[in-house]
Amino acid sequence: MAIDCLVLGAGQEVGKSCVIVSINGKRIMFDCGMHMGYADHRRYPDFSLISKSADFNSALSCIIITHFHLDHIGALPYFTEVCGYNGPIYMTYPTKALAPLMLEDYRKVMVGRGEEEQFTYENILDCMKKVTAVDLKQTVQVDKDLQIRGYYAGHVLGAAMFYASLGDAAMVYTGDYNMTPDRHLGAAQIDRMQLDVLITESTYATTIRDSKYAREREFLKAVHKCVSNGGKVLIPTFALGRAQELCILLDDYWERMNLKVPIYFSAGLTMQANLYYKVLINWTSQKVKDTYATRNAFDFKNVHSFDRSLLDAPGPCVLFATPGMISGGFSLEVFKHWAPSEANLITLPGYCVAGTVGHKLMSGKPTKVDLDKDTQIDVRCQIHQLSFSPHTDAKGIMDLVKFLSPKHVVLVHGEKPKMDLLKARIKSELGIQCYDPANTETVSFPSTHFVKADASNTFIRSSLTPNFEFLKDEAKAMAPLEVRDGRVTEGILAMEKGQKVKILHQDELLTMIGTEKTEVEFGYCFALRLCSLKRVLPAIEEVSVFDENLLLSVLNMKLSNEVGLQDRVGSLEVNSFRLSICKNNSCPHRSNGDSDGSYEGMFFCCNWSNLDMKLAWRVISLLKNMDSSVDLTNKMPFNNVER
Amino acid sequence: MVNLCGFHILFDCPLDLSALTIFSPISTSLYEHTSAAPSSDSLDTPVVGAMLETEKLLDRTNLIPAEPYYKTVERLHLWNASLIDVVLISSPMGMLGLPFLTRTDGFSAKIYATEATARLGQFMMEDLVAMHMEFKQFYGPNETSFLQLFKWEELEALPPALKEIILGKDGTELGSWMPLYSAADVRDCLRKVQTLKYAEEACYNGTLIIKAFSSGLEIGSCNWSLKGPKRNISYISSSVFSSGVAMDFNFQAHLGSDVLIYSDFASWNGTNCVGDENSCSSLVTGGDCSITGDNEYTRELNADSLLNFDESSEEMEKLNFICSCSMNSVKAGGSVLIPIGRLGIVLQLLELFALHIDSSDVKVPIFIISSVAEELLAYTSILPEWLCKHRQEKLYSGKPVFGHEELIKEKKIHIFPTVHSHELLMMWQEPCIVVCPHWSLRLGPVVHLLQRWHADPNSLLVLEEGIDTDLALLPYKPIAMKVLECSFLSGIKLEKVPPLLKMLQPKLILLPDHTKPYFAPLSESLPCLFYLEDETLRLPNSNNLSELHIATDLASQLTWSKMKNNELTISRLTGELFVDNGKRYLLAEKRPMPYEIRPLVHWGKVDLESLLLALEKIGVKGSIEKVKSDDGYGSNVLNVFEPGKALIQVKETSIVISTSDKSLASLVSDAVHTLLDGI
Ligand SMILES: [Zn+2]
Ligand SMILES: [Zn+2]
Ligand SMILES: [Zn+2]
């Protein structure tokens, strides 16, 4: 039994996330992303490694998509519509609702750039029809054995970590996640579980971030300063996620500061996305969620759609334009118009893929940007880099790994040098094996496996009964008696030819093999002198009113510092050991000549089974030593027993 | 109430709202018409059964003019609340009595409900509390119970219909009347509810895995699947195969359970199915729309058509019928009053009304009057995960899941918290269509509007069939307004039950006793057991052995020994038993073994001669002695004299060693054990 992780994408890099996990032979594809930095075959995961014959339907049990970012879903329409995968696909409701917008937006940009079309709009729609939407924590039975379940991941609306289990083997794939809540989403949440493998993103493997609020304030200040000086603010974003998050920030700020400067959304597309956010408001942070009844937070008051004619209109404004990173399309067009003016501001996300205009703007302070061989743009505007990110920082990753304490950790979705550092920390600080395979590499682990056996009712009942143990630290005389539930399950495993393994209670075994238990018992009957008993119970003198039970209780009290006997009427007992007052002068447990009717003392009869040998002898020696002088037995006058 | 794995589980805690009808509503002279229109009973009031056959006829003076009390589940008050471990709420209706339970001393059970059920239930309870305030204001802070107003004789003298409601059929239900809970009780109650998503696994006490699956009845309503280490149980409450609003009945989730408790009684129309052991679902009724009259529907159903047949189109027909009747009334200048408590129906009606109004030339406003309507409607547009496929498709295509949001924006629908709200008085126009909560026609806006319109023959009252209409309408008599009684699908149709049960293949089905005539003939193919109200039914012990999961490291440590004469291999197994997520695990003991490992059980025979030989081998000497047989110790004993004194008696199933010498005792016992089999 084993778990194998074949990394097809996002191995030691960010982009085209795709991991094939095989649990005890069943294969799941986690994410099916594309790489924004490439335009050739490297943009997609190498699907041929899944199945040489391209028979993906029998090679995979299901596909799970964690969220709508293109580096996690971008290759899905290609894989289903072009490669022909027809099996089940799972993603959360918001991901299913929002992914087509994301994919279509990207497809248009691709086509706009004159690239070869990888899939059509119809492909996107057909692909989404194959998707089963799931709710958080909903346990989905993929087939008879395989179970999956999503957990809230923060990051973007609908992002989920996925748990998968098959038999006793279990694992979690995080996708992208955020361990701290932000303005519009909550923090990732997951149950504590027994896991063999945790596959986690590691975008910020070494970064530790402080409070987000300070950085949000910085952003708002920069925007406010720009518009109050009559400048225009360009916020290049993708259609979903960051756009809504920033918009909530701005809309709220505008309201509070009573600003009248218009905020625009570039295309109808982004406005429409807000409708989805309104309906799916339950997937946002608690604070935003609570606004649904009064005024849905995604009912932006100050936001309008942008018209191309406003591009060179005078006066300040804020514009959200797609795509993010200024990789082409409308945001590039706006950039061309606005970048040359010092009064304007362009905000950039924390991460831009190499090759995009955004990336060029981030590296140093360029005064000119080359768009292509012939076009060069003067950049005189201000650049504000957004330093808040929807990814967890290193502390968050460590917290999650520590919380889940899996047997193995696999790092993906990060940069190699930083991942190495994090890997070393996980090994040294948490003592957990950690790996960071490159693309196309496979790592394998043994999976948890339990041997299954049928347990009989008697066995279960006996195991569930508490078994109190009375312990005494003998080194410290005054130490209090410690009582603990020393419940150890004791049973018998029986394998009969051709039958399932059974677990029985020992008594049941005897019935099964048709025999009876033979007890090996011990008996010892001994006397204590009256004078030593008198010290314990002075009233013992008045033999007529002498109460045996009282005597036993008092003795028990004396012994209670050493052993815990239970006071039953007429005897003291613990486990199989039993002590009682013996009046049978011909008691067989008395040593020859040990019994004496005329002897002034009392006989105590003890019996026990071989399990309690040590305990029995200890009690006996304690009782005998009550007569603080010497061992009683040696001094006793021996008389013959009357028979 | 079900006892599973030693846990007491209560399914649903509703209120018997129909009992509210014994109280008289607050009359507002404002709307009282001095000259009541002639009653047209023959035309409008439905045929009433047993009620009229009694010698005493009811009139409105018989109703009790007091602050209403509320009737909880029969005999629930007799239960010791602290004995309940788990409460499972299947629908918002099943939650209305819950605050009575949660405020009881000693109540500590874990309550589970789906997220949507909890929220919708909260809306209903908040509305109930708010509407009840009207009574409080009317009667003042009266501390005495309505029951104290009566002497026993007076109670006896009440008309039988009322008496039966108050006392129950056998006169034992007096104790289930309670004064209404407060808003604080409701809040407190909801804090105690753990909310779930569909198919979310909740683990109670590490042992029971509880899952809710959609039942299709209402948004968020569910059936339950309970999985313990030994049995899994399915609880099927009122379910609808395909609903136009809520997520469809997920019956596949209940396939192959050990026990299936079937508790959907919507189809037992006419028979008294209220107050069974598990759920007192007094409000579910069945049959078909009394006007469309398509209850002759008798199609052969096999398992396939069970799944394929679209019930929602039939429901749509009924709703469309209501709309067209309403439009007729409006055209005649009358208003339409729709007091319906079922959210799914209301949401569909609103959409249909908009269509009907658009396609006709009459422009009539729709007013929704309820203290919680605004929030409730806003809430319905943010829970796409709980809706049927067709509504979810709307989400994916970027359209609002329900039409009402747009209609409110377009000012075709107006929402008001109460009939007294200022905005309502400003907007009010007649004719109009009013949708408001039902509350047995005793609480809230419906009371005022009925008093206003009851004598208008052009107006229309749309009621859900099932409540005692005659009693409910009593205070508004004589009634001239038209009454349309309509029943909506609120459960599995009777003819679909056997194929469903057959398909689910449970090992055992539990059905209420009154269904025996129907199911007993089918018992060959369906393993049924029938339970009686208030009686405990003990299920045959399941022979299932519990599965135990043994950790591999522990399993590899086992030392196996073969039994001499048969093909049996045995091994002693020691470890710590854990119960987690409904599975039992046996893990290797963490602490070091404190004692030496020696066999714990022995069997076999020992004879004195071979014992003597075995002892001699380890240097213990003794002799066999005959003991007199009258001492009661059997026959032979072995007397050891070297190295110390000991007496060994060999009996049928035991060997007794008596000695004062500790080390000699161990020597002898070792020798004895070599002669026995043991493990
Ligand atoms: Zn992402
Ligand atoms: Zn990513
Ligand atoms: Zn004795």
TrEMBL record, chain A:
Cellular component aspect of the GO annotation: nucleus
Main localisation: nucleus
Q: Where is each Metallo-beta-lactamase domain found?
A: 15-231
Q: Please give the SUPFAM superfamilies that the UniProt record associates with this protein.
A: Metallo-hydrolase/oxidoreductase
What GO MF annotations does this protein's record show? hydrolase activity; RNA endonuclease activity
User: Where is the protein situated, by its record's location annotation?
Assistant: Nucleus
Q: Which domain of life is it from?
A: Eukaryota
Residue ranges of coiled coil: none
Q: Which residues form the Beta-Casp domain?
A: 243-361
Query: Matching Pfam families, A to Z?
Result: Beta-Casp, Lactamase_B_6, RMMBL
Q: Does the keyword Protein biosynthesis apply?
A: no
Gene3D superfamilies in the cross-refs: 3.40.50.10890, Ribonuclease Z/Hydroxyacylglutathione hydrolase-like
Biological process (GO) annotations?
snRNA processing
Instruction: Keyword check for Hydrolase, yes or no.
Output: yes
List keywords of the entry alphabetically: Hydrolase, Nucleus
* Family membership noted in the UniProt record: Belongs to the metallo-beta-lactamase superfamily. RNA-metabolizing metallo-beta-lactamase-like family. INTS11 subfamily.
Q: Which PANTHER family match?
A: CLEAVAGE AND POLYADENYLATION SPECIFICITY FACTOR FAMILY MEMBER, INTEGRATOR COMPLEX SUBUNIT 11
Name it: Cleavage and polyadenylation specificity factor subunit 3-II
Q: Which organism is it from?
A: Centaurea solstitialis (yellow star-thistle)
UniProtKB/TrEMBL annotation, chain B:
Q: Which spans of this chain does the record mark as coiled coil?
A: none
A Pfam family reported for this protein in Swiss-Prot or TrEMBL? Beta-Casp
Keyword field contains Calcium: no
The yes or no answer to whether the keyword Cytoplasm is present is yes
Keywords from the named record? Cytoplasm, Nucleus
* Beta-Casp domain: residues covered: 346-467
Q: Which family does it belong to?
A: Belongs to the metallo-beta-lactamase superfamily. RNA-metabolizing metallo-beta-lactamase-like family. INTS9 subfamily.
Output this protein's name. Beta-Casp domain-containing protein
